[in-house]
Specification:
With about 375 residues, this protein is of the alpha+beta class. It is built from ten helices and 18 strands. The strands form three sheets. Strands 1, 3, 13, 14, 15, 16, 17 and 18 form an eight-stranded antiparallel beta sheet that branches. Strands 2, 4, 6, 7, 8, 9, 10 and 12 form an eight-stranded antiparallel beta sheet that branches. Strands 5-11 form a two-stranded antiparallel ribbon. Helix 5 packs across helix 7 (about 175-185). The chain starts with a strand and ends in a 5-residue tail after the last strand. The model has no long low-confidence stretch (mean pLDDT about 95).
């Protein structure tokens, strides 16, 4: 069974008025369009053509949530828990109302995620840079009091990254935060030119936010169309700008670490944060009509299909979805009936379907549960 899926874009403040509109070939929106959810998560289940929502068909059982994400401004710096951490945190907060702004855990699931870029350029922060690299970057910021205080924190003993992030977000470091942000304006470095430009841009949008200095501790990724990045539990990250297809475990658990007016629970953030520094690998598209983005979790799998006019047969292990992102895509299942999938919409594929044929000319993403072993 194939069922068409649509949804209204969510209007988070960081969303773009143009990126989704350009993808779908329509005029820019009057307000921000940040995310379109194609899933059965109770936060915003996708719409079916008959007026129901997808959870009426699935019972809310999908292991993944598929989205289009369009960022004009940086998202909050954030981290997601492991499944064990989510279960423990959700149980501890059981007495809190579901809409309590101080609630950290909206469900008891983990939230690893993958994003694949649709725009020509996509900027993101992902993971923590090794401390020696950040110390080299700080050389470009001079020797002001705030810069010296930050440098001193990073050259101390123990888990200096965890301790430094806790200090920055504590509320006690605002003079040092302001001093470092001021030093960014004139900083120059051939080695860290991209990093400085991205963090300066963030500072312009979030003046005085301690998250700007947290961002200064993070790896900056500049991705091109078709490239992707997998973000494991515990990994600090933030999308800065661009359009992409995002898939994640079906969860809405977010612990924030700056660049947001929302509640930041510093203690809980530090408890689940993985401060192991290092680069985060970029996933590159392979050759062929169908490209898989390999991820080490069973919750989801994502493939990109390039359809060139001839019928492209694809095996699926559903329940699955096909999301159209370019051109004209038609999907046929076992009964052979064609379902047209306009760009920016998806089709739900029920579990009994094992083989799809994609026709037309364009690009689509195929989402399904991942391998269990």
């Amino acid at each position: 069974m194939l069922m068409s899926l649509t949804n209204a874009p969510r209007d988070y403040a960081w969303g773009s008025t143009s990126l989704l509109a350009e993808l779908e070939g329509r005029a820019p929106a009057a307000g921000p369009e940040a995310e379109v959810w194609f899933g059965d998560h109770p936060g915003d289940p996708a719409d079916l053509a008959d007026g129901r929502t997808l959870d009426a068909v699935t019972g809310g059982s999908l292991s993944f949530l598929l989205k289009l994400l369009a960022a004009a401004d940086p998202l909050s710096i954030q981290v997601h828990p492991t499944r064990e951490q989510a279960r423990a945190g959700y149980a501890l907060e059981a007495a809190l109302p579901a809409d309590d702004p101080h609630r950290n855990y909206r469900d008891d699931n983990h939230k690893p995620e993958l994003i694949v870029v649709l725009s020509e350029r996509f900027e993101a922060l992902a993971g923590l840079r090794p401390v020696d690299g950040t110390l080299r970057l700080l050389e470009a910021l001079g020797d002001g009091a705030g810069v010296c205080a930050l440098r001193s924190r990073l050259t101390g003993g123990g888990d200096v990254l965890r301790d430094t992030i806790g200090w920055l977000l504590s509320g006690d470091a605002q003079p040092e935060v302001d001093d470092v942000i001021a030093a960014l304006a004139a900083a120059e470095s051939s080695e860290f030119a991209t990093e400085l430009a991205v963090v300066r841009s963030i500072a312009g949008r979030y003046p005085g936010d301690p998250g700007v200095i947290v961002a200064l501790l993070m790896n900056v990724l500049v991705l091109s169309r078709g490239e992707g990045v997998f973000l494991r539990a515990g990994l600090l990250h933030a999308y800065v700008s661009g359009l992409g297809v995002e898939i994640m475990a079906a969860s809405d658990n977010v612990l924030r670490g700056g660049l947001t007016p929302k509640h930041i629970d510093v203690r809980e953030l530090l408890a689940i944060l993985d401060t192991t520094p290092g680069e985060v690998p970029v996933l590159h598209p392979g050759a062929g009509a169908v490209t898989a983005y390999e991820v080490p979790v069973p919750d989801f799998a994502l493939r990109r299909a390039q359809v060139d006019g001839a019928g492209l047969a694809v095996q699926v292990d559903g329940p699955a979805m096909v999301l159209a992102t370019a051109g004209e895509i038609v999907v046929r299942g076992a009964d052979g009936e064609p379902v047209t999938v306009p760009v920016g919409t998806a089709v739900f594929v029920s579990a009994e379907e094992r083989r799809l044929v994609l026709e037309g000319s364009g690009e689509a993403f195929i989402a399904q549960p991942g391998a269990t072993n």
